[in-house]
């Protein structure tokens, strides 16, 4: 009999049950596609321009707690794609999304934003060069807006940067859907991709060409915190998947484990581990976060 720790966290079912328990009668429906695009690499990675896509947000000092141990912070969300110079260091945080706050510290941004390590891989000749910009992709719950507004901008910007391939690193459940949809669009535009993620069920349900699955808590798709060896191995595995995948829907699971104790898998959005009183508090907190997010979206110009 399989050990319960061998099974990935069922994020789709957990989030459905969670929102029903909070009193919302219309559980979120994730995108799903039967057909998956696939573009083969046309040259070695050592000769390629590599784009990095993230769902992390730039630190905003005036937007409340965003550091280690920060609670969910809707005020720190972004709703328009942004870009940053890959030659520079950046302070990106993940307080604005639903990552695993109990089992990861949010102390080491290298776990969700591997740009420094990718620059090192360039210096070592593993990849040819980085695209001029990395790209931040909004985690908009509206699939229509993501598909019709955000993703076309990202694809165009990757093309303008001359990207040959792209590495996509999501964080929360919706982040995994968003970057899976983005990977599909990039492949259709002729740019091979690999998704580095922790929510196996969501990525495979959407349907992507290449996926490196790390069985880690959400927010650690690029490796374990303060563990340079695990981050290096994780990125190298992702690049190998990018190079060697024979066809669409190729999933490779990292051999790395989070810890000897698999109990962490039982905690994320698990209604069986939360009291009714705590659920009521979380419902009120979620309602406030939704209102904050609504106000942020209303500030976006109509032409954006």
From TrEMBL:
Residues 284-304 are annotated as: Disordered. It comes from the Bacteria. This is Glycine reductase.
């Amino acid at each position: 009999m399989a050990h319960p720790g061998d099974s990935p966290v069922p994020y789709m079912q957990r989030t459905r049950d969670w929102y029903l328990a909070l009193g919302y009668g219309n559980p979120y429906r994730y995108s799903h596609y039967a057909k998956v695009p696939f573009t083969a690499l046309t040259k070695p990675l050592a000769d390629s321009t590599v784009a990095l896509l993230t769902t992390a947000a730039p630190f905003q000092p005036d937007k409340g707690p965003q550091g280690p141990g920060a609670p969910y912070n809707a005020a720190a969300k972004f709703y328009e794609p942004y870009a940053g110079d890959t030659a520079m260091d950046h302070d990106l945080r993940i307080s604005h999304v639903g990552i695993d706050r109990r089992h990861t510290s949010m102390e080491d941004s290298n776990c969700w934003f591997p740009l420094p390590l990718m620059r090192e891989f360039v210096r070592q000749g593993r990849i040819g060069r980085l695209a001029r910009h990395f790209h931040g992709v909004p985690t908009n719950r509206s699939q229509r807006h993501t598909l019709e507004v955000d993703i076309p901008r990202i694809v165009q910007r990757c093309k303008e940067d001359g990207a040959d391939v792209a590495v996509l690193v999501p964080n929360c459940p919706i982040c995994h859907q968003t970057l899976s949809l983005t990977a599909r669009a990039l492949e259709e535009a002729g740019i091979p991709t690999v998704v580095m993620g922790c929510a196996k069920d969501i990525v495979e349900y959407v349907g992507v060409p290449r996926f490196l699955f790390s069985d880690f808590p959400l927010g650690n798709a690029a490796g374990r915190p303060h563990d340079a060896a695990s981050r290096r191995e994780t990125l190298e595995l992702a690049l190998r998947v990018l190079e060697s995948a024979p066809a669409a829907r190729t999933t490779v699971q990292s051999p790395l484990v989070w810890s000897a104790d698999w109990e962490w898998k039982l905690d994320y959005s698990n209604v069986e581990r939360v009291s009714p009183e705590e659920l009521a508090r979380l419902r009120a907190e979620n309602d406030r976060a939704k209102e904050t997010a609504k106000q942020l979206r209303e500030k976006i110009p109509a032409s954006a």
